[in-house]
Each structure stands twice: as structure tokens, then as C-alpha cells.
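Chapter review: from sequence to fold.
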Amino acid sequence: MPEAGAPPSRWPALLVAPAHLVPRLLLLVALLLCGFTAAAAPRIGVVTMQPGEIFFERFGHNAILVDDPAKGTAISYNFGYFDPTEPDFIARFIRGDMRYQLVALPLEDDLAYYRDVGRGVSLQWLNLPPADAAELAAALAENARPENAHYRYDYFLDNCSTRVRDALDRALDGGLARQMGGSRGDTFRSEATRLASPDLPMWLGFDLGLGPAADQPLSNWGDAFVPMRLAASLRDAHGPDGAPLVAEERELLPHRLDPEPAETPRRWWLWLLAGVIVGGALAWAGRLAPRAVAGLALPFWALSGVIGALMLFIWFATAHRFGWANYNLLLMSPLAWALLPGGWRLTRGRAPGRWFDILLRAMPVLATIGLFTHWLQSLPQQNLHWIVLVLPLHVGLMLGLRTR
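The C-alpha cell string follows.
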């Protein structure tokens, strides 16, 4: 029998250790728990892929890397996946209602394609507090669940890069947005045409098809729709503790393709010179050989009508908001199709008809209105180069083909 008042065994005696040892034990436990939490916290990085050669790869790409030492995994969270085999994929693409999704896959699997096609890949390890890193990793895992993964894609406002930007900003409690308020002077048009410039049809599509909404000045926050611009902004950002947000940057894959296109100034006077030379030649030749000039004008009018009809379709029948209210409609419109019958009669040596002369005069008038509209706007659509090219062509055809 134990003595009265004595503990029944030696183990319970430890639980009633002297009072001066209790704070030390609690501190030891707390340190052990903090050390375990820090060791188990995932490491967050941003993976940036350089532009490729296929048209939908021209803007580059990026993803968030979660390196979890507790699980021994390095998962790439990639917001750029779409399924072209969906039954309504083409119809959705035309309407501007595209469905993209977030996919979580091992980093090596994500890199395999870029290694095969020669696209460079870099990694920026971020200096995030352990709690913020763990919260971001959990949010990405939840977002990648099949029922949460899809989102409505927008080329400029909600794409793979803006999703990466927004996820990082939430992890920093809005700290990233507060640091990206400056501006490089870019616009959606300038960045889209710069990156599309190696592909002439793609460049033409963006430059002709984008309306005035694409010419609003962008902050660095808006500029981050381009993955390479986001990577540049991250280099200048700081974490909650004031330290640089990017703790380390390294190359994962070398870039074996042409480098990212540089910014080039628009020399509108070269476009004007070309327009005046060609327009003058049309006016002179039209008085001497109207049938030949009419034959040259037919494809120009047909193409102008097609481009104008596409711009009207984008404006009134799609959700491609950055193509709405396009002032290039004053330069190229479906009205040009009405010139085709008279132009065809001219090529046959016959009179083109009364309406032909009226429409022939209307085309340069509309283009001139486009020029005044450009001058009168405080933030005009950046299409001066197209105006000074196309207006002289319309004037030249009017002078060369008008009825004597």
C-alpha cells in the first residue's frame, strides 16, 4: 500500500513536477511544434514559360509550383488547359465564351512538352510566410477539384497569367496589387501586337480587330495578363516582412526558339507614304486604263467588306468586348460590297451605273470621318497608321474610276 498522500506511481509524479519546470516544458513543446510547422510548410514558386511558335502559344504561359516536403511532391498548378474535343468548343470560341480549367500535375510532366518544343522555362521561388504558403497550397488544391476547376476565359482580363497573379495577391492579402500600381505605358493592343508580330495573320487580326477599349493605358497589374510581365513585376515586389518577394530565380529549361519580340515604334508616316504612292498611282492609271484598275479594286473591295462584316459580327454577336465599336469600320465596311457590281461592269467596258459613283465618293468620306474622330478623341483608338494608308487608296480609286 502506498503511503497516504503519496502519488500512486512514478508516472503521475512527473505530471506534478515542480512549478519552475512547467514554463520550460511548455516552451520546449512550442518550439518543437513551430519547427515542425516550418519544416512541413510548402514552398511556392512561379513557373514562367517563354512564347512558342503556335498561335495560341505566342503570349507565353505560367503556373504556380507547390513543392510540399511533407508529401515529397512538386505539383504544378496550371490554369491554361482547355479541351478542343468538347462538342461546342468552336462555337464557344467564336462567341467568346471559352471554358478553361486549372489542372494539377507533377512538375516534370508539365515541363515535358516545353522541353520537346524548345520553349524556355524559368522558376521564381517566392519568399512567403509559412502560413500564407500553406493557405495558398490548400486553396489551389481545392480550386483544382473537378467541380471547381473550370472558369470562363478572357484573353486580357481572366487568363492563365491573371489567375496566377490573383492567387498570389490573395495569399498576400492584397499586397501584390498595392505594389503593381505603376505603369510601363503599355496597352492591351501594344502587348498583343508585339507578341503576335512574328505571325503576320495573327498580328493583322489583333491590330485590325481590336477596338478602342484595347488602347486604355495599363498599370503593371493589368500588364500581368502577359506571363513575362508578371515575372518582371514579381522581381520588384516585396513580401509582408519587407524582404524581396522573389527569394531565388533559376532556369529550368533553356529557350531554343526565337526570343520574345521587342517593342518597336509605329512609324505612321511610312504607312502614309505607302498610301499616297499607291493611291496616286491608282488615280493616274484609272484615267488611262479604268478596266485594269477596276480589276485591281475588286479584290480590295471584297476584302474590305469581309473585314467590315467580321468587325460588325464581333461587335453585335460575340462577347469579345475588346473588339466592340471598332473605328476601323469607317475604313473597311460591308458597304464596299455594293461597289462590286459596278466595278465588274467597268472591267467589261460597260457603264458602272449611277449608284457606283455615289458609293465611290462615300468611301473616302467615311475614312475622312475616321481621321477626324481620331483627332477629336482624348484617348483615341490607335489606328492612325491604318487611316493614313487606306484613306489615300479610297481617294485614288474615286479619282481614277469616277464617271467622267
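Two observations follow directly from the output. The longest strand covers residues 73-81. The CA atoms of residues 273 and 308 lie 24 Å apart.
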